[in-house]
Design goal:
The protein has one domain (19-334). The chain contains 17 helices and no strands. It has helices spanning 2-11, 25-43, 49-55, 59-67, 73-104, 106-120, 122-125, 137-158, 168-171, 174-190, 198-204, 208-214, 217-222, 225-254, 256-273, 278-288, 294-334. The longest helix is centred in the C-terminal third of the chain and has 41 residues, at 294-334. The radius of gyration is 21 Å and the shape is globular.
């Protein structure tokens, strides 16, 4: 028995092909909801789409499907379809409906998402719980780096003055289109690496508000050059997303356990960084000078944080119990 356990552990870091199972109605909805939250996370300050994918246990399969989209086109598209549909709905809803709510109640919205992330985080810890008692030194290093990375990054961006790109986005010189492509590649990184927020990154680089404002028919009609800029941004995102997915999928295949030590650190670090980024820092700054409504934000935000943490945790435990019952039933059926 112990020998088998040792064999299993040694195989954790070996090459292992990820298997994409056929969707059931439940798993299809789970992927669609994950996609919805990923799309919404593009608008929400400090929220990482990849962290959401990890919490919903679709991260490694999503990367694998994207990296194999040309070799296994049908399988990959079928798996990615509900995620893409959900992400589009989440982004559109976030852009047209939720954005105004976020601007008015930033801290409260962050508390809701922070609670959901914290409550669901045990799902990630379960991947390394058997190995956390005797981890290798480099796995501890990966865990610490993962935890520190999003916090340091968020704090850095929060204290860096936003770049002014007004002139470039008014005159649209030739190099602006190259900037658009590489900006898309950089944004794709935020959807691959947990702890990176597209919103915070674009704000720090001075592109978030201009791009959001450009996504209106009247603006595009007055300045058609925005169409080329946005198309190149999307192209850069797709190219970057594909290439980075292949890289991350390779590491998951070769070093799955070590990657989950890194991912666990990134996930918990992301939860901390949600409460300190450029948008939330602005709320704190307003509180310090008597602006805003600190009593309302804290009075509603903190209870909602606790409530959504409990809800997410209970859902994780319920799903774990249900999965265990299904596995036990399958084992009994084979006896």
């Amino acid at each position: 028995m112990n020998e088998n356990k040792e064999i299993k552990k040694s195989n954790d870091e070996s090459s292992e092909e990820i298997v994409i199972e056929k969707y059931t109605t439940k798993s299809w909805l789970n992927s669609a909801i994950s996609g919805f939250l990923i799309g919404l996370g593009v608008i929400l300050p400090g929220i990482s789409g990849s962290t959401i994918a990890i919490l919903f246990k679709i991260y490694d399969k999503m990367l694998y499907a994207i990296s194999k989209i040309f070799k296994k086109f049908k399988t990959s598209i079928i798996y990615l379809l509900p995620i893409i549909v959900g992400a589009l709905i989440g982004f559109v809803l976030g852009f047209f409906v939720v954005q105004s709510v976020i601007e008015a109640y930033t801290f409260i919205v962050v508390c809701i998402f922070g609670g959901l992330m914290l409550g669901a985080s045990p799902e990630i810890f379960l991947e390394i719980k058997d190995d956390i008692k005797k981890p290798k030194w480099y796995q501890i290093v990966l865990l610490v780096i993962g935890f520190a990375f999003p916090i340091v990054l968020a704090a850095t961006f929060a204290n860096v003055k936003e770049i002014d790109n007004t002139e470039m986005l008014t005159t649209f010189p030739f190099y602006s289109y190259l900037v658009a492509f590489f900006l898309g590649v950089i944004v794709s990184l935020t959807q691959i690496v947990p702890g990176l927020s597209a919103t915070v990154l674009l704000m720090s680089l001075g592109f978030f508000k201009p791009i959001m404002e450009a996504l209106h028919v009247s603006v595009i009609m007055n300045e058609p050059r925005w169409i080329a800029f946005i198309l190149l941004l999307v192209l850069g995102f797709l190219v970057g997303f594909f290439l980075l997915s292949k890289v991350m999928s390779f590491f998951f295949k070769k070093y799955r356990l070590s990657m989950y030590f890194l991912i666990t650190g990134l996930t918990f670090g992301s939860i901390v960084s949600v409460f300190y980024n450029s948008d939330v820092k602005e709320v704190y700054d307003n509180w310090s000078i008597g602006k805003g409504n600190m009593a309302l934000d804290l009075g509603i935000g903190i209870p909602l944080f606790v409530i959504f943490t409990i809800i997410a945790f209970m859902l994780v435990m319920y799903q774990k119990k249900k999965d265990k019952a299904i596995n036990d039933q399958s084992l009994n059926a084979t006896k």
